[in-house]
Amino acid sequence: MKLKGTIPNLIPALLKLDLTAEFDLDVKPHKDKRSLTANSYYWSLLNQFARWAGRSDAYIHNDILAHYGQPYGEGFEAWIPDEPEAEFKAMESATYHMRPTDEVVWFEGENRRKWLLMKGSSEMDTGEFSRLVDGLIQTIQCSGADIETMTPAELETLKGYHGKA
User: Structural domain boundaries of the chain?
Assistant: First the structure.
């Protein structure tokens, strides 16, 4: 038997079990996972927008992560020479996701900019990923790209309104 829920919801279910029987319990916190549908929707929109913008998927993904994603936090940063090609290389990376900051220091004869390491989309919880999807949709809508941003479920709902006044 597998039980899921909050402690207040689990206690009544546990009390219904045979109190004389022995059980092995494995208690672990619920992992907030987003649906494969949401992931598929994000990558479909991103791919269409990348083609429209004439950029790689990695570039658009990193740009969206930089604007709407979550940095790991203190200690996850890099000081990269402050030059235009450094930003382009970072944005084209499919391995690392980074966001430049406004902080620049002089180090070993050159300006270096502080970059924050961002969480990849596969490491985000549902709320973080939802913000990322919303940011992508907003970016697409503001760009003027002719890309449908409604989900398939939203489009199906609209079909039900045809011919009804």
Answer: 34-143
The first and second tokens of residue 154, run together, are 């939203």
- Burial grade of 155 (CB within 10 A; 0-12, 13-18, 19 or more): exposed
Q: Map residue 147 onto helix, strand or coil.
A: coil
pLDDT 10s digits, 97-129: 989 899 999 998 999 999 999 999 988 888 899
Q: Which helix (H) or strand (E) holds 59?
A: helix 57-68
Per-position b or e across 91-112, b if 16+ CB within 10 A of its CB: beeeeebbbbeeeeeeeeeeeb
Residue 139 pLDDT class (50, 70, 90 cuts): very high
Give residue 102's identity as a one-letter amino acid code.
D
Strands (DSSP E) contained in 17-147 are: 77-81, 98-107, 110-117
Q: What average pLDDT does range 63-81 have in this prediction?
A: 90
